[in-house]
Design brief:
Strand content: 5-15%
Largest sheet: 5 strands, antiparallel
Order of helices and strands: HHHHHHHHHEEEEHEEHEEH
Helix content: 55-70%
Number of strands: 8
Number of domains: 3
C-alpha cells in the first residue's frame, strides 16, 4: 500500500501545488493589470503562465522523484527527461518574460512619441523586434547546449570539441558565409537606421511598405497586396528608394500629352481649383509647365505636393482624372489629334504642280472615305 500511495502523493502533490501557485500568481498579475491599465507589462507576464507552470511542475517532480520510488528501473532516464523538460521550460519562460518587458517599454515609448516623431517610433520598433529575435536565438542556443551537457558522452567530448573549435569555426564561417552576411546586415539595418518597419520603399521598381524585418530576410508588402521577400543583405549592397527617410513630405508629377493649342493658362487656374477641393493636397505648392514639344503634341507637367506617399498618389490620380474630364468638356480641341491634310512639297521640288497664278495652291483636306448610303 505504501508503494502505491507514496508515488500518488508525490506526483499528485506536485501537480496540485503547481496549479495552485500558478492560479495565485495569475490572480495577482490580473489585479496588477487592472490597477495599472496604462502599461502592458502585467498582461504580457500573464502570457507566460504556461511555461511558468511547466518550470514549477518539472522542478517539483525532479526534486521529489527520488522519494517517489516510481519505476526505479528507469530512474536515470526519467530523471534526465525531467531535467531536459526543466531546461526547456525555463528557456521558454525567459523568452516570454523578456518579450513582456521589452514590449511594455516599447508600448510606453510609442504612446508618448507616436504623434511627435513617428519615424523614430518605427526605428525603435525595428530595433526591438530584431533584439527580441537575437535574445530568443541566444536563449535557445544556451538551452540546447545545457541539454546536451546533461549526457555524459557529450561532457566527455567537450575537451576535444574545444580543441577543434578553431578549425570548426573557420569551416562553419566559410560554409555559412551568406547566412552570416545576412545576420550582420540585419543588425546593421536595425541600428544603422537604413530602413524601418512601416517605411515606404521602392525596390527593383516595386513600390511597397516594409512589413517584416528578421535577422536574415525582409518582407515588402506591395500596393496590390503581394509580398516580396528578399535577403536583408540586399539593402546594404544595392541602392533603393526610401520615401519615409527624413520627412515624409513628397512632390509628385502628372503628365499630359496635348495639342499645341491647349490653353495652359486656363489649365493652371483649373489645377488650382482641383487642388483646392482635394483634401489630400497639403497646400505647400503646385505648378504647371510645358516641359516638352513634338511635331504633333506638347507635354504638360503638373507638380503637386502632399504630406506622405499615400496622399501624393491620391492627389496625382485626382488631378489627372479631373483635368482630363475638364478638357473633354470645355476644351476638346486641346486633345491630341492626327492631321489628315495633304502634304505640300517644298518650292522648286521636282514634279511640283502650281496653279495658273504661279504660286502654290492652298492645302486641301482629304475627305474621309464614306460608305455608300443604303436605300
Amino acid at each position: 500500500m505504501e508503494n502505491l500511495l507514496r508515488p500518488l502523493i508525490v506526483i499528485g502533490g506536485s501537480v496540485l501545488l503547481t496549479l495552485v501557485i500558478g492560479w495565485a500568481t495569475d490572480l495577482l498579475l490580473r489585479k496588477a493589470d487592472d490597477r495599472h491599465g496604462g502599461t502592458s507589462l502585467w498582461g504580457g507576464l500573464r502570457r507566460a503562465r504556461v511555461p511558468y507552470q511547466l518550470v514549477l511542475c518539472a522542478a517539483l517532480l525532479r526534486g521529489s522523484y527520488d522519494q517517489a520510488q516510481l519505476l526505479t528501473g528507469f530512474r536515470e532516464g526519467i530523471g534526465r527527461l525531467l531535467t531536459l523538460l526543466l531546461i526547456g521550460s525555463a528557456a521558454w519562460l525567459a523568452v516570454r518574460i523578456a518579450a513582456a518587458v521589452v514590449g511594455a517599454s516599447y508600448s510606453r515609448y510609442a504612446t508618448t512619441n507616436s504623434s511627435r516623431d513617428p519615424a523614430r517610433v518605427r526605428r525603435v520598433r525595428t530595433q526591438v523586434t530584431l533584439i527580441m529575435r537575437v535574445v530568443a536565438a541566444i536563449v535557445g542556443v544556451v538551452a540546447v547546449a545545457a541539454m546536451l551537457l546533461t549526457f555524459p558522452a557529450m561532457r566527455a567530448a567537450g575537451a576535444s570539441l574545444l580543441a577543434s573549435a578553431g578549425i570548426l569555426g573557420i569551416v562553419a564561417g566559410v560554409a555559412a558565409q551568406s547566412t552570416l552576411s545576412n545576420l550582420f546586415a540585419g543588425l546593421q539595418i536595425a541600428f544603422g537606421d537604413m530602413v524601418r518597419m512601416g517605411d515606404t520603399v521602392v525596390v527593383d521598381g516595386e513600390w511597397g511598405v516594409v512589413e517584416e524585418i528578421t535577422l536574415t530576410f525582409l518582407t515588402v508588402r506591395t500596393w496590390d497586396e503581394r509580398r516580396i521577400t528578399m535577403p536583408v543583405s540586399y539593402f546594404t549592397s544595392k541602392p533603393f528608394e526610401n520615401w519615409s527617410r527624413g520627412t515624409p513630405q513628397m512632390t509628385g508629377t502628372v503628365f499630359w500629352q496635348l495639342d499645341h493649342s491647349a490653353p495652359t493658362a486656363l489649365m493652371r487656374e483649373r489645377l488650382r481649383d482641383i487642388l483646392g477641393g482635394c483634401p489630400a493636397w497639403d497646400g505647400r505648392s503646385f505648378d504647371l509647365s510645358v516641359t516638352d514639344s513634338t511635331p504633333n503634341t506638347m507635354e504638360v507637367r503638373a507638380l503637386v505636393t502632399a504630406k506622405d506617399a499615400d496622399d501624393i498618389w491620391t492627389v496625382r490620380v485626382t488631378v489627372r482624372e479631373r483635368m482630363l474630364d475638364w478638357l473633354v468638356r470645355e476644351h476638346p480641341y486641346a486633345l491630341p489629334r492626327v492631321n489628315t491634310a495633304e502634304a505640300v512639297p517644298a518650292p522648286g521640288a521636282h514634279g511640283e504642280r502650281r496653279p495658273s497664278g504661279g504660286t502654290p495652291g492652298p492645302r486641301r483636306a482629304v475627305e474621309p472615305h464614306r460608305p455608300p448610303e443604303r436605300g
